[in-house]
Amino acid sequence: MSSHVNVRPGRWWGQAQSMFLLLLLVLANLAVVVAPAEAIDPGEMFADPSQEARARDIGRSLRCLVCQNQSIFDSNAGLAKDLRVLVRERMTAGDSDDEVLDYVAARYGDYVLLQPPMRSHTVLLWLAPLALGLFGAMLAFSYHRGRHQRAATPRLTTKERATARRILEGGQL
Amino acid sequence: MTGVWIFTIALALAAGVWIARPFLRRGEVELNEADCAISIFRDQADEVKRDLEAGLISEAEYDAAREEIEMRALNAAKSMGEGLSVSRRSPRVAACLALVTMASALAVYAGLGDPAAPDQPLEVRKQKLLNERASAGDLKSQLQVLIEKTKADPKSFQDWWMLARTYSATGDHASAADAYRRAAELSGDRPTVLSSYAESMTLANGNKVPKAAKLIFQQILQKAPDPRARYYIALSKAQAQDFTGALDDWAALYKDSKPGAPWVRIVRRDIINMSKFTKRDVTKYLPDATPAEIAKANGSPVDKSATLARISEIEENVAKDPKDYKGWIELAELNAAAGQNSKAVEALENGRKNFAAAPFVLGKFGETARRLGLDLIESPKTKGPTDADVAATSKLSQSEQDNLIRGMVAGLAAKLEANPNNPDGWIMLVRSYTVTGDVPKARKSYETAMSHFKDDAAVLSRLQSEAGKLLAAKAEVGAAKQ
Amino acid sequence: MIVELGHFALCLALVAALIQMTLPLWGVWSGSASAMKAADNAAQVQFAAIATAFGALVYAYVVSDFSVANVALNSHSAKPLIYKVSGVWANHEGSMLLWVLILALFGLLISIFGGAVPVRFRSTVLAVQAMIGVGFLAFILLTSNPFQRVAMPPLDGNGMNPLLQDLGVALHPPLLYVGYVGFSTAFSFAVAALISGRIDPSWARWMRPWVLLAWSGLTAGIALGSWWAYYELGWGGFWFWDPVENASFMPWLLGTALLHSAIVVEKRFALVKWTILLAIFTFGLSLIGTFLVRSGILSSVHAFATDPARGSFILGLLALYIGGSLALFAWRAPAIQEGGQFEPVSREGGLLLNNLLLAVATGIVFVGTLYPVFLDALTGQKITVGAPYFNMTFLPVFALVMVAAGAGTFLSWKKARLGPLLKYCLLTLAVAVVGTLVVAIALGLSEPAGLFGIAVALWLVAASAIDLGRRAGLPGATLAVATQRVMGLPRSTWGLYLAHIGVAVAAAGVVAISIWRVEEIQIHEIGKPVTVGGYTFTLADVGQAKGPNYQASIATIKVEQDGQLVQLLFPERRWYPVEKKPTTEAAISTLWHGDLYAVLGDPNGKNAFVTRYYYNPGVPWMWLGALMIALSGLISLTDRRLRVGAPTPARKPKLVLQPAE
Prior knowledge:
Mean pLDDT of chain C: 87
Shape of chain A: elongated
Number of strands of chain A: 0
Number of helices of chain C: 19
Number of helices of chain A: 6
Largest sheet of chain C: 6 strands, antiparallel
Order of helices and strands of chain C: HHHHHHHHHHHHHHHHHHEEEEEEEEEEH
Oligomer: heterotrimer
Shape of chain C: globular
Largest sheet of chain A: none
Helix content of chain A: 55-70%
Low-confidence stretches of chain C: 644-661
Helix content of chain C: 55-70%
CATH class of the largest domain in chain A: Mainly Alpha
Strand content of chain A: under 5%
Largest interface: B-C, 80 and 94 residues
CATH superfamily of the largest domain in chain A: Cytochrome C biogenesis protein
CATH topology of the largest domain in chain A: Helicase, Ruva Protein, domain 3
Structural class of chain C: alpha+beta
Mean pLDDT of chain A: 72
CATH architecture of the largest domain in chain A: Orthogonal Bundle
Low-confidence stretches of chain A: 1-38
Radius of gyration of chain C: 27 Å
Number of domains of chain A: 3
Radius of gyration of chain A: 32 Å
């Protein structure tokens, strides 16, 4: 590595980052700048599988800000990658899962949390399923009570039944 | 336009008649609700019966279900006679209905449509447009027209010849060569056509006479003393390092040419350049050389020591900062002016090495070489990075990679200097500089971009959010480290 | 001229729809059967006219007639033919035209196959269909006219987003629209019943085939969209609970409820008002699904402001149709007398529970989808309601739906006997628990959530199988009798089993991929093995190849299990020099239990590449389940009884009265 190129230490990092840059620059020099699809790349991953699993769990409850409801671990967008890196940095700094989420939410707002936290303005959202269930049960109950209170259907006389049978079988009045 | 109206009226009439049709038919009684319902209850009764037979329901359940169905049937039967729907024949209503349909559809269309507008399929329009533009002198359209013509009649010499000349005019020498070849075949290998063909091959080859072209030129010369063939044979000699031969040939060509011939200017230039490289007396080859030309051929009359001082200054500069492409170009120019051709070539070569992956800068080097006549002795190999090159970079050492990247960054900077209207490019440049650790340059290019786009709020905010933040982050990290 | 004829045809369609909307209602009021029957003819004219208009627009796309603004804005002369055609509905105006085309198609089908529906009712239904048609035709002609011409046509068009140039995307909207628009028939039957004021069990039978058709189309449409995401996104995601997906899922959930409640109306004439309401809401959600999604309002309130004319027109139409029909409901429904009584534990009770749960599930999705929009509009606060919310709230309710669906098949109409019910339920439970334990031990699975999901799926499958046995008379009946009985079961019963098993299979697949998917991302050196969920992936080689318009690096990956070669995978990384875009082509190998999914990334160092490997268990089951569900609707459609209650010819009443002239 030449002395004045300040690339971060670490084999993966250096390689991955300079390769990435190289590719971008080729594109920039040719014509249009296109950010190539970059899902999770090995350079950003933790070596320890349990740490990595933790990172994924946290990442799945964070929204990629520029996508529609995709989590940052499901997205190829560049911003999602930045957030992934941030999550990993906080974890390395020793944060617990909740602390990481709080940290990210404090910076980007609740918008970034795929599971909206319980706040005054989300109370209705969280109560809705319960309320809907209760309302439905009430509706069904009152429907049933209403039916029971109605008089039982009057039975048909023998003559009526004979007429009905004729209608059903012969099609004549 | 009348065609549109005829069709629309026909369609409207057909639609109107079809909608009015029920009013034209013999009267009949329709099935009513009760009828339809009872057939369904009958079906339900059958199904309950089947369930009973299958043992799925008990006799009591069957009877209750059956009674329910019977009750529905009775209810339905009560309304059997009422509200019978009868259709009657009434041509007057039908006619009115058809007319109303027609008239209102036509009225709505008259309000919204554009009946005078014809269809304009691209095929038809393209031909018309192309012809118009071609006759107005647009080369690209002329090309299109000629391509179509040669496709329609591939046996026409005239079309191929015109096509080839148009290609030459647009600078697409490879395609021109191809077309000239077809024209030559059709002309029965007429020497003038053949020599145009070989010339295009040469131009397509970066002005280096390829073997095939050389053979053609020789073949032409056996038949006729075609000046173009003579010129290129001489050039090929120069490119094969036979400078004396080339010089002699050009001199001979010059002597045989009328003073006003179109190639005379080029031949003179090449004689002068060649005399300079080979350090010969230009008057021997060009008896009527002007004093200025003689001076040029003899090297720079200007203050040589100043030039040399400047050369060593720039040499130091580029050694410090090899990504300064203007430095390399100036070095080549000064060396050429001082008569140090090999050093000039070397300067360009070194420059190329540093900008291997920046086609824009490579193009600039090529231009310089042509301007200085250096391409006569060394033909440049300019090409962009291919995918294979990129793949190969993975095999490069880290320092080689870094060097390549820095070359690219510098290339990008040069490109932006020439054409700054490229916000993505600027963002990329700032990002690149921050990654390569060149923060001052990053900051400087950020400022340049900001001032360039100062009137465009949208771009400014993009620059701020994408490039500005990067710089801020970098500054934060820098501060933290101290 | 063809373009202008298309434009004229669209105007003609509006006029035909206006006639179809008014004439039959006048006929019903005055008793003129000719006027009623003219509804059929008007529906036919309306369809033919819209089809002509659509054909003209397709023609304009195919010949790249850029004097049509819509073509100039959305097409390009260099596009392949298929994408020129699919480009017709890849934009707002064209997709609206497709929407009304399918609407008119359903009108045409009713006019042709509705012969068993009495003319008075059929013409009312068609009149309501036309009310919808008039609104949207006017919307197209006035605010989104695809036949708008430009005076100075450009030399070439603007082109189409390359991402949309995909066969899946090309076919997705038409199928989804068959579903969305198909529910308009349910709406029309419901509103026609309210208008005519007479309703009996036959009403449900007339309506049910149309609901089945729409529901099958919607199922297939949703599955296709999900399938496309799975194959295109490059990592195997298939459902994100994003607003667009939710918008198609809500009508499906409510349509499923409608399908079930219509059975109760048909058999017992109970839940009538509820069914009418469901029909209105299902179509209402379809409208919201199509238009609010297209307007972009679901992803951002501000999208609405960019084109207020269109936005307010659409909102006005939505308010008119949904509000108008609800007002009609409030006015007429109290007069509807419901029939059959039933006990809480009965087939009716079970279906009521099913409806209740599905409606609650729909409500949850609705709240989750629209809450952020309203919150943003009212308070400016931005929140995200994502997968975790829906997983926590929707999934338990849906699990209950599946449990209820299993138990429901054992219930008899009116009043179920508790003894046999308990017996069958315990048997089913035993099968489900034992089955789950076997699966857990055999595969060494322990995640409780996943095992619970598997158990619920097994419960539903077992319940269907046991119910089939019950109907066959097992145990007890001889094999011959049992076979005879099974063969004699009506098609709609087979449809029921297929649908329930399909839901179970798809649910098992979803549970499997959600809980047990394995993902390995690494820098993979050529020749080195990597273990992915019991499979060994070895990167054998990466070669270069040239495609028609791209260059590709193609990896050869050997997948082995216990030393046996399972599959060779060839993921590609492509570079399109013209577009200057790289793309990844995942290699997917489908085994019966799951997919092996490999993605090739960038080269990294000497002889090494970034690779991503996934083992996605259950994925083929999802598609199989969805296919079964869609097919079940079609199978039920072929039921003799549903051939729109066609009367048995031999017993057809002889009713040849001579008209009194």
